Structure formats: structure tokens, C-alpha cells
From TrEMBL:
The chain crosses the membrane at residues 38-58. Residues 62-91 are annotated as: Disordered. InterPro entries: PEX22 (IPR037485). The keyword Nuclease does not apply. The lineage of its organism: Eukaryota, Viridiplantae, Streptophyta, Embryophyta, Tracheophyta. This is Peroxisome biogenesis protein 22. GO terms for biological process: peroxisome organization. It comes from the Eukaryota. Keywords: Membrane, Transmembrane, Transmembrane helix. It comes from Panicum hallii. The keyword RNA-binding does not apply.
């Protein structure tokens, strides 16, 4: 029957068009014009073109690949000081060194120049007479002094009785490795013959922080020096507000 044949022919045409959807539109148009047995070429062609445009509109886009979203930089935890982050990134063999570094930076915050007496602070010896015979650096202050010299301009000074005392002092400091980093040099170790001379050294250097075992010296300097540390196992009595008191150097920086 002509009507049934035309319907079957149209169905066959749609199936062929579906198989040809992945081809170019020009190929589909050529297929339509080559098919001569359809009852209504115009109707079938219109239907086919509508299917093609619907397919092109609804199919998933295969255009350019989407760019990956930029990664957000990892944020620093709130409340973490920058200095702590820089130190954590730096390899430190001993965690104690990191703690010492942070405490020194905190205690000497804003201080650019530090002056420190030798006897009773750096040396085991406490009198000029003992220094004439020998000098012994206290092992517990070596790393601390090196850290202070990295943080500030450090000067060491002492009142001595003769040249032999100076030699003993310099030899002990060098043997302890205090000159090995370059922060502390022999030229920054000063000697004088009286306590008045030591007081004069501190003022001439315009130190921000002075460390001494003499109550007289720290009292005289309290008007001129920003901060001082009085090293004594006994209470210093009524000290000025800018004078700290500690039995030894390492305890103050602990």
C-alpha cells in the first residue's frame, strides 16, 4: 500500500538520520536529496533539520577544556607571629636553641647595643685577683652570649689589675668559641683599671642594655641607660624601675 510504504520509508529515513548525527550537517542534507522515494521530501527534510538543530543544541559541549580553579594559598593560622613561622621553617638541631632565640629577642626587644661585665657573669671568677691567675668561661652562658651577639651589638668589659689578666680573659673567651661566629670580636672586649672606667665605657658606647654585678654602677647608670640587669644572688633593695635583678645571666633569659 502506498501510504504504508511511505510511512515505513519515513521511519527508515529517521533511523538513517539518527545514525548520521555525528556527521556534518552537509552530509545529512546530501542524504535527504539522494532519497527519492519519500512521499513528502519537504516535510521529511524539515523534520530532519529540526532534529539536527535540536541535537546540536542539547548535546554536551565538547569545547575548550575548563581551566582548573586556582588553588588558594594556605593561610597562616590566626594569632601566629611571623617570627615564629620563619623560625619553624628554619631547621634547628636543638629545640632549646629556638626557645633561647625567642626569649633573647623578647627580653632585648628594641635594644641595639648591649654591654656586659665579665667577672661573675661570664666567668666563674668573681674578683680581679682571681682573674690574674686564670679565667674560666661558664659553659651555660656560651650559646646565650652567641645568641645575644646575633641579636644585638655586644660588648664585654672588665676591670683588671694587669696585662696578664687581659690575656687570661681573651684566651678563655677564644677557647670557649665566643669569637667563632664573628658577632663578638676581640676588639669588642674592653678593659679598664677602675669601676669608674667601666661606667664611662657604658656611657660612651651609648648602650641600650647593661649587665653588671656592681650595685653602684647600675645605680649610677640608671638615669642614662634604657635597661640594666643587676646580677646578684641577693635582692638589690629599692632598684630603679629600669633595673632587673637575677642571680645569673641564664636564669634571666630562661
Amino acid at each position: 500500500m502506498p501510504g504504508l510504504a511511505a510511512e515505513q520509508d519515513a521511519v527508515s529515513m529517521v533511523r538513517r538520520i539518527a545514525r548520521a548525527l555525528n556527521r556534518r550537517v552537509t552530509d545529512i542534507v546530501a542524504l535527504l536529496f539522494n532519497h527519492k522515494s519519500a512521499g513528502s521530501l519537504g516535510a521529511v527534510a524539515g523534520f530532519a533539520i529540526a532534529v539536527v538543530f535540536a541535537w546540536r543544541f542539547l548535546r554536551p559541549s565538547q569545547g575548550r577544556p575548563r581551566r582548573p580553579a586556582p588553588k588558594r594559598p594556605s593561610a597562616t593560622p590566626a594569632g601566629t607571629p611571623d617570627s615564629v613561622v620563619s623560625d619553624a621553617a628554619e631547621p634547628v638541631g636543638d629545640s632549646g636553641k629556638l626557645v633561647t632565640r625567642q626569649i633573647v629577642a623578647k627580653r632585648l626587644s628594641g635594644c641595639r647595643k648591649v654591654t656586659c661585665q665579665l667577672l661573675g657573669v661570664v666567668f666563674e671568677e668573681k674578683t680581679p685577683e682571681e682573674l690574674q691567675k686564670h679565667a674560666t668561661v661558664r659553659p651555660s652562658v656560651v650559646e646565650l652570649l652567641l645568641e645575644i651577639s646575633r641579636h644585638c651589638d655586644l660588648y664585654l668589659m672588665e676591670t683588671v689589675l694587669d696585662d696578664k689578666s687581659e690575656e687570661n680573659a681573651l684566651m678563655a673567651l677564644e677557647s670557649a668559641g665566643l669569637f667563632r661566629t664573628g658577632g663578638l670580636m676581640k676588639e669588642k672586649v674592653l678593659f679598664c683599671s677602675t669601676e669608674v672606667g667601666r661606667t664611662s665605657f657604658v656611657r660612651q658606647l651609648e648602650a641600650d642594655f647593661h649587665i653588671d654585678t656592681s650595685l653602684d654602677i647600675v645605680s649610677q647608670l640608671s638615669r642614662f641607660i634604657r635597661c640594666q640587669l643587676f646580677i646578684s644572688s641577693m635582692e638589690g633593695g629599692q632598684l630603679a624601675a629600669n633595673i632587673f635583678n637575677s642571680p645569673n645571666l641564664e636564669q634571666f633569659f630562661s
